[in-house]
Amino acid sequence: MKEPVINVFDNVTELLNALADFLVKVANEAIEAHGQFTLALSGGNSPKKLYELLASSAYKNQVDWKKVYFFFGDERYVPADSLASNALMAKKTLFDPLLIPETNIFKVDTSLAPEESARIYLETIEAHFQDTPINFDLILLGLGDNAHTASLFPHTSVLEEKVPSVKPVFVDELNAYRITFTAPLINQARYIAFLVYGEDKAEAVHQILGEERDFRKYPAQLIQADLGSVYWFMDKTAAR
Length: 240
Ligand code: 6PG
Known about the structure:
Strands 1-9-8-5-2-3 form a 6-stranded parallel β-sheet, with helices on one face. A 3-stranded antiparallel β-sheet has the order 4-7-6. By secondary structure, the chain is α/β, with parallel strands linked by helices. Strand 2, helix 2 and strand 3 form a beta-alpha-beta unit. Helix 1 (12-34) packs across helix 2 (46-54) and helix 2 runs parallel beside helix 3. The protein has 6 helices and 9 strands.
């Protein structure tokens, strides 16, 4: 298994510009190689600034966005208009500013029951990949301060999934459902990039990259590229 590539930056601005440059490079390589760039976004707060940067004049002209297809590595099981929706956050910060057509955006349908929502999302993804293996060009991931990533939360049954898939998971600590890629689905991406900054992440980073190997306690330890490479983009407070 390849070791992850760890990048630590002095501040968040340098970190975000480096990740934006990396994403642009991977996007243009993918478009050159196979005519499209399949990107699975992460949610929560950390990526908002990255998405705003990509939509800014500094980056928006560096990628042919009509050849970019957007997916979500996980989604909160909330209505589409909920402020907790990852898709709504991405719409505001990235899709609307870049005028991304709806046909390039693949959202989780949370109006269905959790099991159905996950099953239909997987079918949607399989249809886009035309029943070839689902190898996303890039999957962006965040890291929770409890060492979860996507919606792979500690001590949940979804951590035991051995097949690339999309599953619902009820998260006791949130008292809520999430819809998430399984670790095997994430691990067959060409590139996986963690975006982690802020000192409240330092403990989780230490756990993930540390000596104690226990994926049930530290689910982000499940993430290792079977085909490609894992990159960490951190600021120095998170990497402390
Ligand atoms: C989500 C994310 C989740 C996130 C971490 C970190 O749906 O919330 O996909 O995995 O990356 O919880 O969230 P913050 O960036 O908000 O700290």
